[in-house]
Write a structure and sequence with these properties.
By secondary structure, the chain is an alpha+beta fold. It has one domain (about 1-265): L-amino peptidase D-ALA esterase/amidase (4-Layer Sandwich), CATH 3.60.70. The chain has helices at about 35, 40-50, 85-90, 190-210, 235, 240-265; strands at about 1-5, 10, 30, 55, 60, 65-70, 110, 120-125, 125-130, 140-145, 150-155, 160, 180-185, 210, 220-225. The strands form five sheets. It has a five-stranded mixed β-sheet. Strand 9 (about 125-130) and strand 10 (about 140-145) form a beta hairpin. Helix 2 packs across helix 3 and helix 4 (about 190-210) crosses helix 6. The longest helix has 25 residues, at about 240-265. The chain is globular. The two termini are about 35 Å apart.
C-alpha cells in the first residue's frame, strides 16, 4: 500500500508495510461513508471467517482486510453509509465477471470538481481497467474517484469532469485536493517490498489525470496485490527492471480506470455527469 493523501480514512494499512510480518491479505475494501464506512470491513471479516478464510492462529482464523474510504457524506443523506452488513452482502455478490462502472458500489456518492461548492460539481464514480504486458503479465486497476479537483484526459489535456464555470465550461484546476482510492492487482509473483513499490509507482496514474494530487487535503490511497499466477519463474518477476515495468504499467492502467469512472458515471441527485 502507499498512502499519499494528508487526510486518509484507512484501516490495517500499517500491517502492509514491508517490515511487518503479514505477507498476504484476504480481501480489500473500498468504501464510501468516510471513517464510518470502514465498518464495512467488519462484515467482510465475518463472511471470510464463516468460510474458514484467514490466518490460522490456533484458536481462530483471522482474516486480514485492509480498507480505505472516501468522504461522500455530503451527497444524499449523511446518515446513510456502508456498515458491516453492507460488507457482508458485497462478499455474497462478489463475482469474477466484468463489473459495472460509474454509479456503483463506493462510486455511488463520488463527485468531482467541488471548488465552487456542490452546486457546480459533477459525478465521479467507480472505474476499472486492465493491461496485458508483452510477457503476458496482467495488471488490473479498480478505483473510486471522488476528487475535489478536475479529471483531465492526458491525451488532449481537456477537462473530462470537474468544477463547472457558471458562465460555461470549467474553471481552472483547484489548488486544494482530492480523494482517490484504488487497488492494483498483477498476476506476477512479487515479494512484499516490490508489491509496495508497485503501489507507490501507481500513484503516478493519479497525478496524470487528477490535478492536483497528494495534497494535505487528500485521502489518496493505492493498494497493490501480487497474485503469483503468472507462468514466468518467480525470479524473473523480481528483477528491478520487471518490477519497474509492472509499476509503470500500473500507473497507466490506473489513469485509464479513473477516466472510465467519470465517463461511465451518470447524473444523480441533480449532479450532472460527463456523459450528460
Amino acid at each position: 500500500v502507499d498512502v499519499r493523501g494528508g487526510a486518509p480514512a484507512t484501516r490495517e494499512t500499517d500491517l502492509l508495510h514491508p517490515l511487518h510480518m503479514v505477507e498476504e491479505v484476504h480481501a480489500i475494501v473500498l468504501t464510501g461513508g468516510s471513517a464510518f464506512g470502514l465498518d464495512a470491513a467488519g462484515g467482510v471479516m465475518r463472511y471470510l471467517e464463516e468460510h474458514s478464510i484467514g490466518i490460522d492462529i490456533g484458536v481462530a482464523k483471522v482474516p486480514i482486510v485492509p480498507a480505505a474510504a472516501i468522504l461522500d457524506l455530503g451527497f444524499g443523506s449523511a446518515s446513510v453509509r456502508p456498515d458491516a452488513a453492507s460488507g457482508y452482502r458485497a462478499c455474497e455478490q462478489a463475482t469474477a465477471e466484468a463489473i459495472p462502472q460509474g454509479n456503483i458500489g463506493a462510486g455511488t456518492g463520488a463527485t468531482v470538481g467541488k471548488l465552487l461548492g456542490p452546486g457546480f460539481m459533477m459525478k465521479g464514480g467507480l472505474g476499472s481497467a486492465s493491461t496485458r504486458m508483452d510477457d503476458g503479465t496482467l495488471v488490473g486497476a479498480i478505483v473510486v474517484v471522488n476528487a475535489l479537483g478536475d479529471v483531465i484526459d492526458p491525451q488532449t489535456q481537456q477537462v473530462i469532469a470537474g468544477a463547472r464555470n457558471p458562465l460555461g465550461g470549467f474553471i481552472a484546476s483547484n489548488p486544494f485536493g482530492n480523494t482517490t482510492i484504488a487497488v492494483i492487482a498483477t498476476s506476477a509473483y512479487l515479494p512484499k517490498g516490490a508489491t509496495n513499490k508497485v503501489a507507490q509507482m501507481a500513484h503516478d496514474g493519479i497525478a496524470q489525470v487528477i490535478r492536483p494530487a497528494h495534497t494535505m487535503f487528500d485521502g489518496d490511497t493505492v493498494f497493490a496485490l501480487a497474485l503469483g499466477t503468472a507462468s514466468q519463474p518467480k525470479e524473473a518477476a523480481t528483477t528491478a527492471s520487471q518490477v519497474s515495468m509492472i509499476g509503470a504499467t500500473a500507473a497507466a492502467t490506473l489513469a485509464r480506470a479513473i477516466l472510465n469512472a467519470v465517463r461511465n458515471a451518470t447524473a444523480l441527485h441533480g449532479v450532472p455527469a460527463a456523459q450528460t
